[in-house]
Amino acid sequence: MEKSTIWKFFDEDLDEYTLLVPSVAVGNVSQLACDLLISSLNMVKTGSVYTTAQIPVIGYDPYNLKSESLSTSCEIYKSDSKKICILQIRSPLIFKYAKQFLEEVIETFKEKKIKDVIILTSSFAHEKKHILSSSFRYIVSEGNPYAEKIKNGDMEKHENNGGDLKILGGGFASLLYKICLEKSLPCLILFKYSSEGDNIPDAYDMVNKLTLVCSLFSEDKDVFSQLLQPVSWTLLFGRPPPQDIY
Amino acid sequence: MCTFGEIVEPASRTIWEDWDEINPENNETLIQWQLPLNIPEIIGTLFILEGKFFADCVKVQAKDHLKLINSSTGSNLHLYQILSCSEYVCTVKDYNLLQSSEIIDLMKPLISKSADVITIQTKPMTEYQTASLETQPWFIRKLTTSNPSKISKDLNFAKLEQPNILSGVGAGAVSLREHMNMSATALVYYIEHIEEYQTDEIHMLLEKFNIVKSCSAKFSGILNSNLYI
User: Fold this and answer.
1) Which domains does chain A have, with CATH numbers?
2) This protein's superkingdom (chain B) (predicted)?
3) Do A6 and B32 lie within an 8 Å CB cutoff?
4) Which residues of A touch B30 (CB under 8 A)?
């Protein structure tokens, strides 16, 4: 059976951009963080991807309720002023097709001359062994431009006791990191130990940590005050109670 | 929804497939058509009907109206031809959500050949997210591709507002058509009880599309009940 991946780009220019990829993981923290970035930086949709490797999801534009534009499982947004692009992933990847798809993602963006990749993800809170340490961990490839900056943030290097890189509950993050290394693309993983529940504060924290390595917001003001929640978050915890019950 | 006293752990979409526990050897289920798929020269509208209600409704139609031309039993997928015209109907029910994109791959020759695609599915009212306090027993919402349909089907329904989304085979068909710059429409019926057969409005819609000639509300109720209660 033919496996499909269809790329649709409206704007091809991604020269020297940083690619941000959220891995579908505990509490969807990284996807929520990317939602915050797209909404706050007013990022523009520049493409979308249809792939067999993903569970299909459709809806209308989650950042503009008046829009008639269809939104799908995997879309690309970019900010020209900040030189970043986000591959927003709205549904999980299917394990057996993931490797092939992620390789294609990296090849496609490498052809577009992106300069590096930042993978955002989360891990189960109970996996954090040192309870007094920061909730954030990072993994950075050799020669990565962020290597020095990230050491100055309140984050710790992920301890990987030999063998393959593992982030429990972190989805495809470690697989994508491995692919980036194979393709010689500088890569950074940033993750937070989190639990399922209200993960909006985790998303805010993640964006705040990200600003330590990437200059995304004005430094004159507090980062949190510059973040704008997308309109699609308004009913994240359900609708009001039905009036019939009173 | 949970029963009184039940503790429900909050869960996100990560539960769809646990990447920490996957055994790659168990991932080789192959979805395929039972018969070789002969792609018709002309396909007008391809209807993709999702869920038990639609599958049962189509199954009991007269053979001189709807002809079963192929099936994929592993995914409960059936392909019918409406004999009076060049339109086709696919029904799919009780499938594994993780296989939805594979089912779309199987249907891709039909989806890409059709002049238009309309998907219909039912969802329980409890899943509909709205700030409105108004209550209705049922309603229909619509999602359309950027490329509008050239075939007039009189689909004057309100659009599905964010944060409501659709997933699965219907969503896959619309998403694929969007990426091929072709037209498609997804209709979603929000009703109180999706397994109930007293939904005349759905029958009227199916009759309007010429998918069913008649659909008795009681035709298969016996199959769902215990005779001795």
Assistant:
1) 12-232 (3.40.50.10900)
2) Eukaryota
3) no
4) 1
